[in-house]
Amino acid sequence: MPTAHAANEASEASGPSIARFGLGTAAVGRPGYITLGRDLDLPAERTVDALRARTHALLDAAFAAGVRYFDTARSYGRAEEFLGAWLAARPRAAAEVTVGSKWGYTYTADWRASGVPVHEVKEHSTAVFDRQVRESLALLGRRPDVYLVHSVTPDSPALTDPALHARLAALAAEGVRVGLSTSGPEQAAAVRAALAVTVDGRPLFGAVQSTWNLLEPSAGPALAEAHAAGLLVVVKEGMANGRLADRNATGPDTAALRELSARTGASCDALALAAVAARPWADMVLSGAATTGQLASNLGAAGLALDSAASAGLAALAEPAERYWSTRSALPWA
C-alpha cells in the first residue's frame, strides 16, 4: 500500500471502493494454469486438499477485506466444489456474496499441472449447457447469481443458436443474470454481437466478463456500450496473467508502470488494477491472486486513484491486440 504522502502524489481524488473488486478462482481451483510465476506461489504437491485449503484461505481473506463478488467456472478444476463447500460452511458469507460462474469449457487435465496436451475443451452447445448447469448447481449448492457462456468469440454458436438462447432465457427467468465472457483479439466484436441478441424482443444477456488491462485495452469502447445498455461489466485478467506483477514487470514495455510504482510506493499490481477500476464502465474488477499476500497487494488498488499524468503514462503500455493474445497463448501451463 502507498503511504499517505505517496497516495496523494498519485491521486486527485479518492479511488475505487473495495466493493468494486472481486476474487477469481482460476489460479487455485486446479493444479495447472498460465499465470507467470505460479510455480513460486503454490505448494510443490498440489493435492486436492492443499488447493482446497488455499482457496478457502483466499476466500476468507477476501471476505474479511470486504470483497463480495466471487468468480469461478466449470473448467477451473474443482473451483466450484471448493467455493460451494466454503459457502456451505459460512452462512453469513453465503447470504452476502454474489457468485458468478461460467459454462462452455470442460476440464480435461485430470488434476495434472503439466504434460497435458489439452487442459480444457470448449463447446457452446445445448448438450454441454444442459450438463454443466446441473453440475454447477450441484457443486455450488445454489444457483449462481451470474452465469456466463465461457470465452465467447464472434463465431460462437452462443450468439446465434435459438435453442441455446431459449435455455438461457429460461434460466434468466429463474433470477439468474445470464451473460458471456470473451477472449481473443475480437472481444469487441463479440460484445457488440451479444448486445444485439434478443429473445421475445428483449435483450438476452445481462452481463459480460472481458479481458481489459494496460497491455490489452481494445475491448474498452464495446464494454462502455455494454455498461450503457445496463449489462454488468466484469473485468478479468487485469494483471495480464501476471505480466504486470512486480516480479514480472521488468522489461522496457512496462517501464512506465515501474516508474510510477517507485514514485508512489504503490505496487505494480495495485496500480494495474486501479487503472482498470478507473474505467467508469467497469462494475467489477477481479483479482486472480494465488496467495493471501498477493490478494492484499491487489486490493491495494482500492482507494488508489491515478491522476491524469499517471493515466496518460500508463496508456502507453498498450500493445496491438493480436500481439497480446499471441503472447498469452504461448504462456506455459504450470
TrEMBL record:
Domain of life (superkingdom): Bacteria
Domain NADP-dependent oxidoreductase residues, every copy: 56-311
Pfam families: Aldo_ket_red
InterPro entries to which the protein is assigned, alphabetical: AKR2_Oxidoreductase, NAD(P)_OxRdtase_dom_sf, NADP_OxRdtase_dom
Designated name of the protein: Aldo/keto reductase
